[in-house]
Amino acid sequence: MGYDIDRFVGYVNEGLLCSICRDVLEDPLQAPCEHAFCTACIHGWLVHHSNCPEDRQMIDISLLRPLYRYMKNDLNRLQLHCKNREFGCEMVCSLESIDRHERECEYSQIPCSNAGCTVHIERRNLDRHLAVCEYRSRECPNGCGYTILSAEDTQHNCVAELRTELELLRSEMICRVEEAKHEMESRLDSQRRHMVQKESILQNEIEELKSQMSRMMSDVRSLMAAERQHRQELEQAELEKREL
C-alpha cells in the first residue's frame, strides 16, 4: 500500500500515484509499459494476474524495474504530514526524510518497556508513564535486596524471599560440593591408575635388570673358571719346563 494522498501538501502529479491502490507510490517499481506501482501492490497483483492492471499488457515480475531517476526525485521532494498528526505532531517534511522523522517522532505510539505491561504511549510521555507503571521494577525498600514489581508489593515478604534465596544458595552449594567431590574422585582414580601402570612398568624393569644381573654373574663365573683353568695350564707348563 502507498502513502495516503490526503497527507500531502499541495498538488501530487498523477504519474506519482500507484496504478493499483491510487495512493502515492511507496517503494515504487515500474513495468515496461511505464506504469508505476507500489512494490507490495504489484507483487500482490501478480500472484493472481499476469498483466498490467492499467493497460492489460503482459508483464512478469522479472521485468519490473526501479522508477526513473527524475520521477524518483520528484517523489522524494513531495511534502507530507507526519503520520502522527492526529496525536498532535505538526511536522511537515519531504517524503525522502519522513521515515527517519517518524522513527524518532515524539508523538509515536510505542509500547511500555516493562515486562507484562501492554500500554502503548507517546514517546514523549514514556518516562512519565514508567515512573508510575504498575509493572515497574524496583529494589525492596526494606533492604532485602529483592527486585519487586509495584503490583507485587502487597505479596512481598522479605523473610520468605530471603529464606527462599537461602535455600537456593544452599542447594547450589551442595551441587557445587558434589561436583567438586566427583571431580576430585575422578582425578584420584586417574592418578591411581597412572601409579599402578607406573608400578607395573617399574616392576618389569626391575625383573629385567635382575635377569641381566643373573646373566652377568653367570658370565663372570665362567670367566673366572676359564682363568683358573688357564693358570693351572700355565703352572703345569712351567713344571714341565723345569723338568726338561
UniProtKB/TrEMBL annotation:
<keyword id="KW-0863">Zinc-finger</keyword>
<dbReference type="InterPro" id="IPR017907">
    <property type="entry name" value="Znf_RING_CS"/>
</dbReference>
<keyword id="KW-0436">Ligase</keyword>
<dbReference type="GO" id="GO:0016874">
    <property type="term" value="F:ligase activity"/>
</dbReference>
<feature type="domain" description="RING-type">
    <location>
        <begin position="18"/>
        <end position="56"/>
    </location>
</feature>
<keyword id="KW-0175">Coiled coil</keyword>
<dbReference type="GO" id="GO:0043122">
    <property type="term" value="P:regulation of canonical NF-kappaB signal transduction"/>
</dbReference>
<dbReference type="GO" id="GO:0008270">
    <property type="term" value="F:zinc ion binding"/>
</dbReference>
<keyword id="KW-0862">Zinc</keyword>
<dbReference type="InterPro" id="IPR001293">
    <property type="entry name" value="Znf_TRAF"/>
</dbReference>
<keyword id="KW-0479">Metal-binding</keyword>
<feature type="zinc finger region" description="TRAF-type">
    <location>
        <begin position="101"/>
        <end position="144"/>
    </location>
</feature>
<dbReference type="Pfam" id="PF13923">
    <property type="entry name" value="zf-C3HC4_2"/>
</dbReference>
<protein>
    <submittedName>
        <fullName>RNF41 ligase</fullName>
    </submittedName>
</protein>
<dbReference type="InterPro" id="IPR001841">
    <property type="entry name" value="Znf_RING"/>
</dbReference>
<feature type="coiled-coil region">
    <location>
        <begin position="192"/>
        <end position="243"/>
    </location>
</feature>
<dbReference type="InterPro" id="IPR013083">
    <property type="entry name" value="Znf_RING/FYVE/PHD"/>
</dbReference>
<dbReference type="Pfam" id="PF02176">
    <property type="entry name" value="zf-TRAF"/>
</dbReference>
<feature type="domain" description="TRAF-type">
    <location>
        <begin position="101"/>
        <end position="144"/>
    </location>
</feature>
